[in-house]
Write a structure and sequence with these properties.
This protein has about 475 residues and is an alpha/beta fold. It has 16 helices and 24 strands. Helix content is about 40%, strand content about 20%. The strands form seven sheets. The chain has a seven-stranded mixed sheet with strand order 14-17-18-13-12-20-21, with helices on both faces.
Length: about 475
Amino acid sequence: MNFEQLTKNYINGQWVSGKGSSYTLTNPYNDAELATFPIATKAQLEEAYEAGNASYKAWAADTNLRTEVLNKTIQYFIDNEEEIIKVLAVEAGSTFIKAKVEIDLTLACLKEALTYVDSLGGREVPMTMPGKVNKVYRKPLGVISSISPFNFPLFLSMRTIVPALALGNAVVHKGDIQTALTGGTIMAKAFEEAGIPAGVFNVILTEIPEIGDTMIEHRHSKFISFTGSTPVGRHIGKLAGGLLKPVALELGGNAPLVVLKDANVDAAINASIFGKFLHQGQICMMINRIVLHEDIYDAFVAKFVERAKQLPIGDPLDPSTIIGPIINTRQLEKVQGFIEEAKTTGVEILLDSRREGNILTPAIFGNVFPDSRLAQTEFFSPVVSIIKAKSDEAAIEIANNTEFGLSSAIFTADLEKGEQLAADLEFGMTHVNDQTVNAIENTPFGGVKGSGMGRFGNPWVIDEFTETKWVSIQIEERQFPF
């Protein structure tokens, strides 16, 4: 299978060319052209919603078919793993390690869905009124709108698509056009090969200027799942709220890794290197700030900077590469602008970055002021701010000093203290003696504050993608007062 030929939309079980303007897909490492294709129009998007609405009820009624499709999709990704990893490299700039992580997360998502694929039946609750049996049913919502970003295009798409389909919904999916294959058509091919009925899963290759707010406002769009920037998430939330439509929004982050006075410094450095530089820092959970107790500041900084200098950079197709390209030139130049701006403030430069083609090497700033633009900006790149704290208590206060609240981490030798501090941090997820990039399918994944709302993970995702219905059965004639 030549995945690079998958540049058509998948609508109602058919591969159809877009009818809009032309788009050229390029390799972010060397700007080589991968494919040129017309994007889908608003009218084609509307066809996808009509197809989804017409197909989901029969899909929801057949648990065995849903189970079979999930199992066959798992096998598809296992059989095609090597080639998909290569496409992730040339399309998304994913290094081998990052791409392997993404495939593994995708398989875990599919396998976990098999444990709740039969959750739509009635569950009896304790009887409190004589003669009345009460049951709780889960019903699919209908058609789910799925919108995903470029950075983890496969997993951050499947994280919505898989539970939505497993629970009997249909899906209309739009990934970032920059990753049209790994964030769109490869998944369509997988589900097609697995035997999914026509209309249940639809993939649109398009851009927002072409379709506007159709994915939020369409009458058949019953739930919007969006992963991306906070400004766009706020726009979606405002529109959906006015239409009384539920949403799941995973938005921006400004993840802190806090290293307390008693922490194992070497272990914290190992975690920080991975949690900062995986996928060039282009992950919403990525460590953006490292907050260090002043007593261990110098020792940590010296080793951390030295480790960062040694990270191999280059072509993501080379398995030894750790730092690959930024997704596009516009984003790369934007980050470079932030770096140059930070330098004008007199902040300490522990490691200056350099540009090699479309690769930006690590930039590390020291003694960063917690309220500065540098500390408060999500860079989505290999740029990190290191902040010195006078006490453990001050370090926690600094960590909470952000409008975002997605992921965070604490390093300490006192596990009981670490757990308590973790529970009190103003983030949806906190990891003790680990880094910030974690996703496990039976845990609640999501953020607070400006990082969004809603939770992925089993069983929380069942609440997100179904509606709850109470059915009572009066098994004895009821006596009324009048």
